[in-house]
Amino acid sequence: MKKDYVQFNDFKFIYLEDSFVLGINVTPTSVDILVDAVLTPEHSLYTPPKVGELYCYKKGYIKFVNVVEVEWKEKNMRPSTDLNGTVDYGNIDYFYQEDGHYFIGGEWGDLKITTNKEPILIFEKDK
Questions:
Q1: What are φ and ψ of residue 11, in 5° steps?
Q2: What does R_g of the chain's alpha carbons equal in angstroms?
Q3: pLDDT digits over 5-39, tens only?
Q4: Contact 61/32 with Cβ under 8 angstroms?
Q5: What is the pTM of this model?
Q6: Going by C-beta distance under 8 Å and a sequence separation of 6 or more, which residues neighbour residue 110?
Q7: Which residues contact residue 34 at a Cβ distance below 8 angstroms, ignoring those fewer than 6 apart?
Q8: Residues 6+ apart with CB under 8 A from 68
Q9: CA nearest 3: which of 101, 83, 79, 112?
Q10: What pLDDT digit, counting tens, does each position of 26-84 carry?
């Protein structure tokens, strides 16, 4: 049965399709994806968007722990630089769990992550 990311505890009030991937770190037992995440108004850290921005963005890490296996298909980490000099690797087009695996991807690539732990989202201010 497929479970979309908004059903994961830490992702209920996050909109990843307009969030930006800022970096990815893969180790044998973990995956950390640095994102500039879009928070919806229901999120406890939500603030009105900054001037010139459409959404409330907060930097944080999508963290996978107890990773057993990672498959990175279509890896394409070509950076894009916006007008204010910020570098990103694109959006997250999909993120779901199915058959004991997590699938997350976008123009930067496609990851299949095997772990028995639900991913968490930790914002930089929480570190």
A1: -115, 10
A2: 14
A3: 999 999 999 999 999 999 999 999 999 999 999 99
A4: yes
A5: 0.91
A6: 72, 73, 74, 103, 104
A7: 21, 22, 23, 24, 25, 59, 60, 61
A8: 114, 115, 116
A9: 101
A10: 999 999 999 999 999 999 999 999 998 899 999 999 999 999 999 998 888 777 877 66
